[in-house]
DNA sequence: AAGATCGTCAACCGCCATTAA
DNA sequence: ATTAATGGCGGTTGACGATCT
């Protein structure tokens, strides 16, 4: 932490003297307490002034950051749920590194946290695969492997692990699925478009529902959302987590933290939130979605876990897959 | 057991947009 | 209209604990 405690050159002016006294680095409990109590009494804003009046030898920016990212009461801590991870992946595919915008759709999560998640978990996988995290190939891998796994995980958790598969079954299913994938990919031309081709092949399949259940594809992911919406049609509309609304973009309402998702073709717009996704995961219909059958069928429960790096990508097998590209 | 390496995440930095004077 | 202050955002850094060798 020594690098944070640089002392500035002494100066006669008052401002510079203040600067010299500014603290950096990790916040102490006392500082946290000062900030919390001051904001409780006077509210947020005017951060530079706040810092001075609260007796904090910190920059206004530092105070703001500490409050927004850590001290604010509604800041959620702990591991991101599969639902949250799913949303991050989906929203990032749509908006890119617009962390703040993405964070608006994950109540209690900060842009910093989401950014850290992306860099430490998602980009790491891209690095291991030696693929650019922004490449189409990687995005397709995310859609075809990661997101369905998250949905599966959501479903599994919603079932309270009542139904458990044996490890042998899981390993066998995944192995079989991978073999299928590899066969498909091997049949494609060279280059990083292999997975894309695979996905296209899926999309060109005559069985559109099968396709939808196999990949969560980005520009096409909205179609899958529509599939979810279709699924919702089977439910009682009063209690359905989806609502049809006229919004043309992702949006969030203060009242319900509800996500309005519209596809690019201006058809159905689904409104859903974390709870919604949870509910969906518990439906048998989504079960099909979350448990892809056929060409992209992967069934390893641990692919998506609290520790992403552990079993999520099954790196060796993805390596094989990548090498076939 | 100890050093090296890795992963996570809080915090900082610089830039830009907005607002107030 | 201009300028300084402030707020917000995305990128980056570095401390520290965990894991590996």
Automatic annotation (TrEMBL):
Region (Disordered): 1-22
SUPFAM superfamilies noted in UniProt: Homeodomain-like (SSF46689)
Subcellular location: Nucleus
Boundaries of every HTH myb-type domain copy: 22-71, 72-126
GO cellular component annotations of the record: nucleus
InterPro entries tied to this protein: EOBI/EOBII-like_plant, Homeodomain-like_sf, Myb_dom, PG/BPGM_mutase_AS, SANT/Myb
Coiled-coil residue spans: none
Superkingdom: Eukaryota
GO molecular function: catalytic activity; DNA-binding transcription factor activity; sequence-specific DNA binding
Listed Low complexity bias regions: 1-12
Record keywords: DNA-binding, Nucleus, Repeat, Transcription, Transcription regulation
Domain Myb-like intervals: 19-71, 72-122
Name of the protein: Uncharacterized protein
């Amino acid at each position: 932490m020594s690098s944070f405690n640089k002392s500035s050159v002494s100066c006669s002016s008052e401002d510079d003297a203040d600067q010299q006294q500014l603290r950096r680095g990790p916040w102490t409990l006392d500082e946290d307490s000062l900030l919390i109590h001051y904001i409780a009494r006077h509210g947020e804003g005017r951060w530079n002034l706040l810092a001075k009046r609260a007796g904090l030898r910190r920059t206004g920016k530092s105070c703001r950051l500490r409050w927004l990212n850590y001290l604010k009461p509604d800041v959620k801590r702990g591991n991101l749920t599969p639902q949250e991870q799913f949303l991050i992946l989906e929203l990032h595919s749509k908006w890119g590194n617009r962390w703040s915008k993405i964070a608006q759709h994950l109540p209690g999560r900060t842009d910093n946290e989401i950014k850290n998640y992306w860099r430490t978990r998602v980009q790491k996988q891209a690095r291991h695969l030696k693929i650019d995290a922004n490449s189409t190939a990687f995005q397709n891998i995310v859609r075809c492997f990661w997101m369905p796994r998250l949905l599966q995980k959501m479903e599994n958790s919603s079932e309270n692990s009542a139904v458990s598969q044996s490890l042998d079954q899981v390993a066998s299913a995944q192995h079989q699925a991978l073999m299928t994938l590899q066969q498909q990919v091997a049949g494609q031309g060279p280059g990083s478009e292999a997975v894309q081709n695979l996905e296209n092949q899926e999309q060109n399949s005559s069985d559109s529902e099968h396709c939808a259940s196999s990949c969560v594809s980005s520009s096409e992911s909205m179609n899958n959302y529509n599939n979810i919406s279709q699924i919702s049609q089977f439910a009682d509309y009063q209690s359905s987590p989806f609502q049809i609304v006229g919004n043309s973009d992702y949006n969030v309402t203060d009242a319900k933290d509800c996500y309005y998702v519209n596809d690019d073709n201006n058809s159905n717009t689904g409104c859903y939130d974390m709870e919604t996704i949870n509910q969906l995961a518990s439906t048998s219909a989504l079960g099909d979605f979350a448990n892809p059958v056929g060409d992209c069928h992967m069934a390893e429960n641990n692919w998506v876990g609290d520790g992403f790096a552990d079993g999520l990508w099954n790196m060796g097998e993805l390596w094989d897959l990548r090498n076939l590209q």
